[in-house]
Amino acid sequence: MTAPRFFIDTNIFIYSVGREHPLKPACLNIIQSIRHEKINAILNTEIIQEILYRYQSLKALPAGIRLAKEVILLADRVLPVMERDLELALGILESHPQIDTRDAFHAATMINNGIEEIISTDTHFDLIPGIKRIDPRKSG
């Protein structure tokens, strides 16, 4: 049986390696599910950029590079962000200006690649038609 595929949001990776936080155990469980091939992790290049941006802003770029390399190895697939994704992301932002710009790019990449589910702590994904958000605390 093929493992289900999910787009994995940046926050899952960040919480899984960060300091103690109420979301850390659930995010670690998601990472373990990916490692044990219970989940096929789909990402886009913006996930990697977001990780690097976050760690560079914390003046911890070497740690960000290590995490980015681990995430790339963990992923079943890393999708490029194409021109059609840019166009759809702009449309998403016009319809839902409260959504983070990077998350609009994630949603557009998902929609254009037929990926319907994202594991994320960000509730604004619930606003985007065609996207079903899975809360990591409820994914068990």
**What is the CATH C-level name?**
Alpha Beta
Q: Major β-sheet, in short?
A: 5 strands, parallel
- Counting DSSP E segments of at least 2 residues, the number of strands comes to 5
The tally of domains stands at 1
Helices and strands, with pairings:
Blueprint: E1 5-8, H1 10-17, H2 24-35, E2 40-44, H3 45-57, H4 61-74, E3 77-79, H5 83-95, H6 101-112, E4 117-119, E5 132-134
Parallel strand pairs: 1-2, 1-4, 2-3, 4-5
Keywords, please?
140 residues; alpha/beta; Rossmann fold; 6 helices; 5 strands; globular
Summarize the structure.
This protein is of the alpha/beta class. Helices cover 51% and strands 13% of the residues.
Question: How would you sum up this structure, described in words?
Answer:
This protein has 140 residues and is α/β, with parallel strands linked by helices. It has a single domain (5-80, 116-138), classed as Rossmann fold (3-Layer(aba) Sandwich). Helices cover 51% and strands 13% of the residues. The protein is built from 6 helices and 5 strands. It has helices spanning 10-17, 24-35, 45-57, 61-74, 83-95, 101-112, and strands at 5-8, 40-44, 77-79, 117-119, 132-134. The chain has a 5-stranded parallel sheet with strand order 3-2-1-4-5. The chain is globular and about 35 Å long. The two termini are 18 Å apart. The mean pLDDT is 95.
